[in-house]
Amino acid sequence: MANGKVYLVGAGPGDPGLLTIKGQLCLTQADVVIYDYLANPLLLGYAPEHAEKIYVGKVRGNHHLPQEQTNALLAEKAAEGKQVVRLKGGDPYIFGRGGEEAAYLKERNIPFEVVPGVTAGFAAAAYAGIPLTHRDITTSLALMTGHERPERKLSSLDWEKLATGLGTLIFYMGMTNLRMISEQLIEHGRSPKTPVAVVQWATLPRQRTLVGTLETIADDVVREGIEPPAVIIVGEVVGYRENLRWYDNLPLFGKRFLITRPRAQATEFIYKLQQQGAETICIPTIEIAPPDDLQPLDDAISNISDFDSLILTSANGVEAFFARLAENKKDVRCLAGIQLIAVGPKTAETIEKHGLRPDLVPERYQAEGLVEELLAEGVEGKRFLYPRAKVVRPVLSEGLKSAGAEVVAPVAYQNVRPTGKEEMIRHLLSESELDAVCFTSSSTFENLLKMFGDELKELKGRAEFFSIGSITTETIRKNGFEVALQPEKFTIDDLVAAMVEYYQK
Ligand code: SAH
């Protein structure tokens, strides 16, 4: 049996971009991932599909899997010869019981490695605009747990050292004891006016940062309703935030958007929104599935050399077509001499990923634009292959046919409506937890409407609808809903730019 090994990997504080490259590599090689409450579940996406994912964090106030059981689980999976990733929030060796887990493995001769992570305190400081050390103010830094085991309460001597001996202090797990912590620090010699920052959900779009002083912070936190997980940063450096804050100044910071396109196509959109500080929730209202009948597409592929042009109008269409080409034991060489037409830059880009360069990308990213350009070139007697989605507008086929072209348009994929997502979406919409729903195609909207029917009307006014382009907008309006925003050009970049502008107004 292959040798199993355990990797104690720091997941970082929350922002998925703060995972280390080595941590990511471990995940991509994992057979088992054992993860915590504070490790961002999005990171599980790096693990192979077949990898077993085991959650050992707490569920709504319930307790974690007891540490002893987690230890045993690590050992057991490694003994089976598996590559085990123990994914822990922040850094595994900072208040993460990583030391206990490593010692348990060591005792049983199970090999392990530790991959450090960006610890929450450091990340919170960076994202709140607080340099933890600054040569004008402080040259030292201490990390503290604010949640001591009862039998190990800090003596007053320790408090004195803390209060006067050290510069910046970061408390983890300190929210329930915040009042006690600030009182003790004041009592043992820190100025009551010392600035304090509490940073909740650091590095995530729901980050909240509250600044007060040792004297006020316990009351401030209650008033503002700030709860764990949060780190508490004590020291004069907190004063720099006013000048150095950046994260919560991003244009879409604090905004929450529902993305309804399939996750595989949503990644870039999500990433771009997050770069602007937004929180994104992806619940696809469409899924891409193969057509019910593959024969028409297969027939067209086996007679591919009969065609003059190949029209692809979406990234999904491109992927579906090339997948089918491979299934039919053909490759791109069979497209030699055929004019390649891509509608939209995204489609063109996807084609290029397959090593081909489209001959024509119409100026306007819609069927109408393409028909216009092709007719100008002349299409009479030409044979077009147009692998398409199951449901499409007839514009393209009819426009070409009526000008004397022959169009073969086999279904290459279909959009299906996923089931079982209603509850999640209803919750998001009804609690007014969303600023807007983003629609990137008519079917993303139509499916949402099918899922909710008239109920969607009741949700009017709670969240705005954003649309990527005029066809989608028309579909939404036709059904009696308003569209708050539509970019001039129908690309993700333009949509994101329009969203930024919308909220800056
Ligand atoms: N090993 C982790 C710490 C685990 S202890 C690390 O290195 O970050 C759990 C505590 O970490 C929480 O009570 C909170 O104080 C802090 N914490 C973890 N993630 C956080 C986040 N995103 N924002 C603020 N505090 C966080």
From TrEMBL:
Keywords: Cobalamin biosynthesis, Methyltransferase, Porphyrin biosynthesis, S-adenosyl-L-methionine, Transferase
Family classification: Belongs to the precorrin methyltransferase family.
Pfam family, one: HEM4
Official protein name in the record: uroporphyrinogen-III C-methyltransferase
Single GO BP term: siroheme biosynthetic process
UniProt-recorded Gene Ontology molecular function terms: uroporphyrin-III C-methyltransferase activity; uroporphyrinogen-III synthase activity
Presence of the UniProt keyword Methyltransferase in the record: yes
Domain Tetrapyrrole methylase residue range list: 5-217
UniProt-listed Enzyme Commission number(s): 2.1.1.107
UniProt organism field: Malonomonas rubra DSM 5091
Pathway(s) this gene product operates in, as recorded in its UniProt entry: Porphyrin-containing compound metabolism; siroheme biosynthesis; precorrin-2 from uroporphyrinogen III: step 1/1; Cofactor biosynthesis; adenosylcobalamin biosynthesis; precorrin-2 from uroporphyrinogen III: step 1/1
Residues covered by the Tetrapyrrole biosynthesis uroporphyrinogen III synthase domain: 271-497
